[in-house]
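Title: Request for sanity check on Xanthine dehydrogenase accessory factor prediction

Description:
We are preparing a figure and want to confirm that the structure record we downloaded matches what your pipeline produces today. Could someone re-run it with the sequence below and paste the raw structure tokens into this thread? We only need the token string, no images.
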Amino acid sequence: MPPLDLITLERALEWARRGETVWLCSVLSTYGSSPRPPGALLAATQGGEHSGSLSGGCVEDDFLARLAAGEFDATPRLVRYGADDDRERGIRLPCGGQLDVLVERLAPGTATEALISAMLDVLRGAPPRLREVSLIDGESRLVDDAGLGPRVERAPDHVRLRLAPAHRLIIAGISPVSRYCAQFARALDFDVIVCDPRADMCHDFDVADVRVIDQLPSSVIPGASHGGTAVVALTHDPRIDDLAMIEAVRTPAFYIGVMGSRQTSAARAERLRRSGGLGDEDIARLRMPIGLDIGSRTPAEIALAVMADIVATQRGSRPATAPHITGRQAEPIRPR
């Protein structure tokens, strides 16, 4: 299942091409608890068609009602949900949170179609871009960007919205950790691909909305990776994990990791240098041991550490390369 923002822009482009005015809403910031992160999108027409989500609840209903009443004809518009008057109207965010939203009115025409098409290209795998929107006149422009860091940057007269390819997780090999990783990743709106050459293991992998491919991961990774991709090898089988790492470092994936203890990781690094032909820069891209050091021991805990490390790297809170092998990761508890 494609990530929600990708679906939202695809629908918005359909509406623009048939001559509809499109209102594009972007979450700028959240205070307290909010179901959708900064940068999340909702698109709508004045007739009530809509795609995407701002909060997963009554905020969308309120916005659509106000849109139908003509309230957002002048844009750009900054809207805050969660204030006292919202609560009086029955609009409540979880745990008393607040939500700031940028509303843009995109008139039909070639300029709107070109903008949405360019945004879609990025989400589908083109290089990251930064979209700068003037809060004075609504003018929008796209500039090149590294793709890592906060999704939204605010200034008094403009906002910057970071666009990167829709995040994807490729899981190389099926193990107890793989199942939890896939579940966590889907909850985080990742497009998830699981690949393993063992057909019986693939047949029994039943996590919803996950593509399962019964091939060696090394044959899938080259064609399925872009700048928004994380690749993780989770089997402890060098025949699967090592080949996956050799192919992954040849891609623009922003995160590459392989499961194993510190001792196992050191041995793997030497093996990849000797047999795989990887250099120091290649090895530095590999998270070995994988994941944040949270003292994880069970498969679920290891998967949690892996996904937390991926998100931290994506948000710019962790460096994209690891200059040396550090830390400790326990071997997962294997089912009897």
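Thanks, this matches our download. The first helix runs from residue 4 to 17.
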